[in-house]
Batch of 3 targets.
Target 1
Amino acid sequence: MGARLEGRRIVVTGAASGIGAAVARLAAAEGARVACLDRDGAGAAALATGLPLPGYSEQVDVTDPDAVKRAIDAAAKALGAIDGLVNSAGVVALGPISEMTIDTWRKVIDVNLTGTFIVSQATIPHMRNTLDAAIVNIASAQALMPIAGASAYAASKGGVQSLSKALAAELAPDIRVNCICPGLIDTPMNAGLKKAPEDGPPVPLDRYALRRWGKPEEIAASIVYLLSKDASYVTGATLAIDGGRTFH
């Protein structure tokens, strides 16, 4: 077992699958106790039960401020405090803007951007009196280099990037805030992008210098770094982990 997060108490949203699950597993392996929050309460509970250190799990919708506050307060009580937060909950919706409904637009913005705000607002009071407190928000390479047909998703993730910078300025020097911009990661949320030829072409990997999908564990490794003391002089940063998508 590693020790980079020894004794830390970390909240992870979207923890039942994908990047969130990978973060929860790696953080626990590095010595942290983890609170796993997700709309999929059973999935969050199953993941928390399998972690090497005692943790906590709760079913919660990040767009519900009252439910989020209750879940964060309960997590802080169960863990003793909160030193770190990873905002990983997210949804994606693709399609031309001419066909996008206002309900779809609002759902993407509400979960990805407003959800990050709601969870951060509820968690920050629990972090102010802890040492080495850190927040990592998950945006997307779409925030840096959007593609056609991703207007709602790109807008929401661009907002997450800007919110991260604003919080870094507001919460310094007590709480560090950084942002991760993943590229094409092999998660359940992105499963629809791996279309069979009869359903249309898959995402062209020649847009990515490394010519492959990323793994959730590769994103988790950078998030754990940003949560740890190794990143003690890093705040307000945006880290693109995208296989070279945004420069290629």
Target 2
Amino acid sequence: MSVQDNARFNFIIVSGGTAGNVVAGHLAKNPNAKILVIEAGYDWAYKSTIVKREDYERIEKPNTCGKALGGSSSLNYFTWAPGSKGTFDMWEEYGGKEWTWDPLVPYLRKSATYHNDDKAYALDLKRLGLNGPIPISHSELIPEM
């Protein structure tokens, strides 16, 4: 897909990953908004640096990095792992009080809809989110593992 020369947009979102697509989805609720989402494209297929430690053994393999709509979530088994309260709260010491847990948790909850259809997991997990655009559920367990 291409954009015509001189096209104008109200919002330009750089990255079509999970976060960028959620932002675009919220902005698109306004039918008059013109939104452009820019995504780099194909998987980078880069390799990470090997950790050299006696107590750490690793087989070198390519790591995936999602340059695709959906971002790395399109490659990493759709794992959803928001940061912890402790991690967010550490940002305050760097001047980011508005990025601590309490101000951010409502937005984390707003981003997801938790599914526990067969009630196999604790019912209070529904606090993860009820009306967000990202569906969250548990994967099927593999008995062989």
Target 3
Amino acid sequence: CLNYFIHVFSCLNYFIHVFSCLNYFIHVFSCLNYFIHVFSCLNYFIHVFSCLNYFIHVFSCLNYFIHVFSCLNYFIHILSCLNYFIHVFSCLNYFIHILSCLNYFIHIFSCLNYFIITEGLLIFFVYIIIYITV
């Protein structure tokens, strides 16, 4: 009977050893599960940073377009300044036209003055001829 009990306890000891080994493997898998969870969290953060990188890229592209529109604004400003100078030269052209018209009238009055002087000399010579002959 003792031999039987010793055998039973020996078997129980074997099962206890087997369950102890199983407990060890369960602990190892639990640790692995913990690392898997940690890597899953890291994967989540990597995804978040990837999304942030995407938004940074989008804002970088927006910054490029803002720079392009800023350059366009600069060229529009230059064209506006050119338009102002064209307006100034247009006004100068108008004043040059007015001075040209005034020059034309001065030329007409100069010609009239010439005819008045010529006519005055003719009248003077006619008067002298009449005075001498009479």
